[in-house]
Design a protein that fits this description.
about 40% helix, alpha/beta, 7-stranded parallel beta sheet, two-stranded antiparallel sheet
């Protein structure tokens, strides 16, 4: 996502180098969506993996429709006709014959989940999609969707400062149904790296300038939390980012973290988290300084489109 929008200026050439380096290092899962850009991130990813499709597990999403004349205007759509047309459009932009994992980006409250997933299942039958996923779906919708067609993954924001899914029933529902959990923003949109010290660190076009957790008193309170993570990481001999990623991964083999980056150095640092093993005592120590709901401020300005 951040390669094309929301996190400052684009640099497609540099982003392509990052994707190629990730492939060289053995990264196989690449996550995009039609609304990133909108549309241009799928084109970027498609061009970058051309000639290497057999080495990639490709995930994309539909369901957040943006006004081409005003990208800030968004609509959640999940009707069967839209599902079919969105998939065809993503296949064209990505330049591929099939999508490995196709997510409903947000649940449309005006369309029964059974209808949306039924339409997604038809894409599997047609050979356009291999596996189905949901994003930010409620526990009830996860169960209902699974009754229509097997769901391979549920994507949720999950990190030390975004632990909602642990208490809302989403994680429990996914596990009851045998579904993997894909953790997006596992580094708290960069906050948990310890590298951010002021809202002024962000480019003018960076959405974090307007995100509640990066504002005023929220920012100051969250900095104090990250200071604890920096101290624990120093004692472990790793970076704060690596500790935060290791914490997510330590929750089970059914958990996949997808940290985003636009830089090769950060990519390589993130992969170093695979060498960090946290004991039960270390997990308890982390939870003690960063319990559920410890983060100050809501995740989004408008929370109406999550946990549907």
């Amino acid at each position: 996502m951040g390669m094309s929008e929301f996190y400052g200026a684009r640099d497609d050439a540099q982003s392509t180098r990052v994707i190629h380096r990730a492939l060289d290092l053995g990264v196989t899962m690449f996550d995009t969506a039609d609304m990133y850009g909108p549309f241009i991130n799928e084109e970027l990813v498609g061009a970058a993996i051309a000639g290497r499709r057999d080495r990639v597990f490709l995930a994309t999403k539909f369901g957040i429709s943006r006004d081409p004349l005003d990208a800030s205007k968004r609509m959640i759509k999940g009707d069967p006709a839209y599902v079919a047309s969105a998939c065809d459009a993503s296949l064209r932009r990505l330049g591929v014959d099939y999508i490995d994992l196709y997510y409903q980006h947000r649940v449309d409250v005006n369309v029964p989940i059974e209808e949306t997933v039924g339409a997604m299942a038809q894409l599997v039958s047609a050979g356009k999609v291999r596996f189905l996923g949901l994003s930010e779906a409620s526990g009830d919708n996860i169960v209902r969707a699974s009754a229509v067609h097997p769901i391979a993954a549920v994507q949720n924001e999950w990190s030390l400062w975004s632990r909602d899914l642990e208490s809302t029933g989403q994680l429990q529902a996914a596990r009851r149904c045998g579904i993997a959990t894909v953790a997006y923003s596992p580094l708290g949109r960069g906050f948990l790296t310890g590298a951010l010290t002021s809202p002024e660190d962000f480019d003018e076009s960076d959405f974090r300038r307007h995100s509640p957790r990066f504002q005023g008193e929220h920012f100051r309170k969250n900095l104090a939390l990250v200071a604890h993570i920096r101290e624990l990481a120093a004692g472990k001999g790793c970076t704060p980012a690596q500790l935060a990623l290791a914490w997510v991964l330590a929750h089970g083999d059914d958990v996949i973290a997808i940290p985003g980056t636009k830089r090769i150095a950060t990519l390589e640092e993130n992969l170093g988290a695979l060498d960090v093993r946290l004991s039960d005592d270390e997990m308890r120590a982390i939870d003690a300084v960063f319990p559920i709901d410890a983060a100050s401020g809501p995740r989004y300005t408008d929370m109406s489109f999550v946990n549907r």
